[in-house]
Amino acid sequence: MGVPVTYDIDHLISNRLRLQSHAMAEYGIRIFGQYIKMVGNGGSETLPADYFFIDCSYYFIVLQYGLVFCVLIFAVYILCSKKYRLDSYFQLVIMMIAINCMIAHHLLELAYNPFAFALFAKASHELKDNKISVNGRLNMLF
Length: 142
Fold this sequence. Notes:
- By secondary structure, the chain is mainly α.
- The chain is built from five helices and three strands, in the order αααααβββ.
- The protein has a three-stranded antiparallel sheet, with no helix packed on it.
- Helix 3 (57-64) crosses helix 4 (67-83).
- It is globular, with a radius of gyration of 19 Å.
- The N and C termini lie far apart (49 Å).
């Protein structure tokens, strides 16, 4: 019997699955999170001997900040997506960020992802004959 495909995938993505599995086993999910010391390479060309970094934003949030905060973050993005359901550009950006955050830890960093603030932005949307009006401006949909 051969090696499971998950080992090949893990090797392909720099042992990220192993590190996330280790983090989950070592720390577990807590309702309000916990401190987890992470050691990354910070752009260095040499990997530290005690390297331990959770790359997936979703694992990072649920382990470091807890289940309550994770649910709150997901609720904000669901509400944003509902609020801007007619804005296909916004939907595309949110989808790209969601996919990227499976392998990157930047979901909570405003420099990479300021879109949670869209929930608090004021913008009116109207759909008229395949055009969307945002604050009085007409734009063509894809």
